[in-house]
């Protein structure tokens, strides 16, 4: 693999609204990110991805952009961004922005002009179609529920929105629109942005036959994914986007591909000359310990998860970089996704954080993950904020759940859990703000906060710091980035084991994802312990006794 500057990425995702407020309005801002650069450098990260900071009416918390050129005043201004870029650089940290170009906000002037004149120039920036027999052009369901089409008032025309109705999809078939996008992207790169996480990238191309399909729900709609995900020909758009923008700046790019990519096109996306540096796929996101499928079956769930992680590695087979992440702003906190409530403690939290950390690929952490922030379950649906939460709740009620059942389900799976303010200290509002935050702080901030963990060598934060330091260490960095992966103990239930090998070096990673002790027989001579979440290591000759939720990284003999 040809070496790239971003191959050693230990990334950190920031949800700016909830990271640090510095001007007392209860909303996080760019100056708040700059204020914490020392802390982020202390953790050892070297890339920050900022969730959207462009001007937006915030119907989807910034994923509905109304001005691609401007920063939303709630976050600050362009000078604040430049200051962040420069200060981050002094800390050895590069800044990535979020690029949301599958759709805009309905408030974007392009869309406003399209509404005024659907058959005019700007109408062609969007996907606008005639209705059929008094209803939508087809029966596709939006990814966020309901029809994927919204009628334009006083017309028989509808616009397509794969997400909320406030996010009309852009028409990538239009070369004029594409030019506008490239210009805008290059503008941010000229400013000093080192790359992008690119939103909803699989959906840029639609199957423009727009056919009705047999409905798969009582709503009469159909999950149209095959018709708007990785549709044949999408590569032409992505290759052009790369050539006209990213490639010219040697930018780092992470495409969000939700359901993942079929193996036959994976290398087109992230192979040596792929459209992107790497991808965020959702392989691990479907595993939820409290779901009907997995409740009470932790080891079965871990075994299925392990299969999925190894299969991904097997497909890429060292020919491109995957991205190992567990948390983001769209998912509940990882420990509650993987671990039953009664088993949550330091050991299960540290074990969970390590599940894919040492696998081939770059690493991304999400704000609050390294201190073990948790979901904040709400007592009323009105305590939530995200329109998709309310759509989902209404859907549950329609499907026959009681209000209590629907709320319980939302509390289990809502993405809003990841969006509570960052817990910095035990002071009021967790040190996030001096005033009431836009979204309530999790009341557990007195126990779970950065300040209390930062200097405690036995804290979760310190464990994450050790993981980062090991991946970045001079001795092992290349092995973790470029080394082969050889799965081990594949048939041992609840154990994730593999070896990483490069030249004459070999490291064995063994993770006991079970709440009970397990004995493993080692087939390698162990030269030393590189990392453990327990002080006591129970290794005698070739017998390794793994304690409950223990993770071990061992320097081993290659044979
Ligand atoms: C994926 C983003 O991560 C999510 O937060 C957003 O709602 C959708 N894309 C639509 O932009």
Q: What is the number of domains? A: 2
Sheet of most strands: 8 strands, parallel
Number of strands: 21
Low-confidence stretches: none
Number of discrete helical segments? 16
Report the principal-axis shape: globular
Which CATH class of the largest domain applies here? Alpha Beta
Helix content: 25-40%
User: Which fold name fills CATH's third level, the topology of the largest domain?
Assistant: TIM Barrel
| Spatial strand sequence of the major β-sheet | 11-10-9-5-2-1-13-12
Q: Rg to the nearest angstrom?
A: 24 Å
Mean pLDDT: 96
Full CATH superfamily name of the largest domain: Glycosidases
Q: Between the first and last Cα atoms, what is the distance in angstroms?
A: 24 Å
Structural class: alpha/beta
Ligand catalogue? 1-deoxynojirimycin
Q: Approximately how much beta-strand content do the residues carry?
A: 15-25%
CATH architecture of the largest domain: Alpha-Beta Barrel
């Amino acid at each position: 693999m040809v070496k790239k500057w971003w191959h050693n990425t230990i990334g950190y995702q920031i949800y700016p609204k909830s990271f640090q407020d510095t001007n007392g309005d209860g909303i996080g801002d760019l100056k708040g990110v700059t204020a914490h650069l020392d802390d982020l450098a202390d953790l050892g990260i070297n890339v920050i991805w900022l969730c959207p900071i462009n001007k937006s009416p915030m119907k989807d918390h910034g994923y509905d952009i109304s001005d691609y050129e401007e920063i939303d005043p709630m976050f600050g201004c362009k000078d604040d961004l430049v200051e962040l870029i420069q200060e981050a650089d002094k800390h050895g940290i590069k800044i990535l922005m979020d690029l949301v170009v599958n759709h805009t906000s309905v408030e974007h002037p392009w869309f406003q002009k399209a509404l005024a004149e659907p058959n005019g120039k700007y109408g062609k920036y969007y996907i606008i179609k005639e209705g059929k027999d008094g209803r939508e052009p087809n029966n596709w369901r939006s990814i966020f529920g309901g029809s994927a089409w919204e009628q334009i008032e006083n017309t028989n025309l509808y616009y397509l929105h794969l997400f909320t109705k406030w996010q009309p999809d852009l028409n990538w078939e239009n070369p004029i629109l594409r030019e506008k996008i490239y210009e805008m992207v290059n503008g941010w790169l000229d400013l000093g942005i080192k790359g992008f996480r690119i939103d909803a990238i699989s959906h840029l191309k639609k199957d423009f036959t727009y056919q009705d399909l047999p409905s798969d729900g009582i709503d009469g709609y159909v999950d149209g994914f095959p018709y708007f995900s990785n549709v044949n020909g999408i590569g032409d758009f992505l290759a052009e986007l790369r050539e006209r923008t990213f490639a010219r700046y040697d930018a780092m790019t992470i495409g969000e591909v939700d359901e993942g990519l079929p193996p036959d096109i994976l290398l087109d996306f992230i192979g040596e000359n792929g459209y992107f540096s790497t991808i965020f796929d959702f392989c691990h996101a479907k595993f939820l310990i409290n779901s009907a499928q997995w409740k009470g079956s932790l080891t079965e769930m871990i075994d299925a998860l392990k299969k999925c992680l190894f299969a991904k590695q097997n497909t890429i087979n060292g020919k491109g970089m995957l991205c190992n992440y567990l948390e983001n702003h769209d998912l509940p906190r990882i420990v509650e996704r993987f671990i039953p409530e009664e088993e949550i403690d330091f050991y299960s939290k540290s074990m969970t954080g390590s599940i894919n950390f040492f696998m081939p690929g770059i690493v991304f952490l999400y704000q609050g993950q390294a201190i073990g922030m948790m979901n904040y379950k709400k007592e009323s649906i009105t305590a939530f904020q995200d329109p998709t939460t309310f759509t989902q709740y209404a859907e549950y009620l329609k499907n026959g759940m009681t209000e209590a059942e629907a709320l319980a389900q939302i509390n289990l799976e809502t993405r809003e859990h990841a969006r509570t303010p960052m817990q910095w200290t035990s002071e009021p509002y967790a040190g996030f703000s001096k005033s009431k935050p836009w979204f309530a702080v999790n009341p557990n901030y007195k126990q779970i906060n950065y300040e209390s963990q930062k200097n405690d060598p036995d804290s979760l934060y310190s464990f994450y710091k050790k993981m980062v330091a090991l991946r970045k260490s001079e001795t092992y960095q290349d092995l973790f980035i470029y080394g082969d992966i050889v799965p081990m103990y594949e048939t041992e239930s609840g154990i994730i084991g593999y070896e990483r090998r490069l030249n004459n070096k070999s490291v064995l990673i063994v993770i006991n994802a079970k709440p009970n002790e397990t004995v493993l027989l080692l087939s390698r001579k162990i030269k030393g312990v590189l990392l453990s979440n327990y002080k006591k290591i129970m290794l005698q000759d070739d017998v390794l006794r793994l304690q409950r939720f223990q993770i071990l990284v061992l320097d081993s003999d290659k044979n």
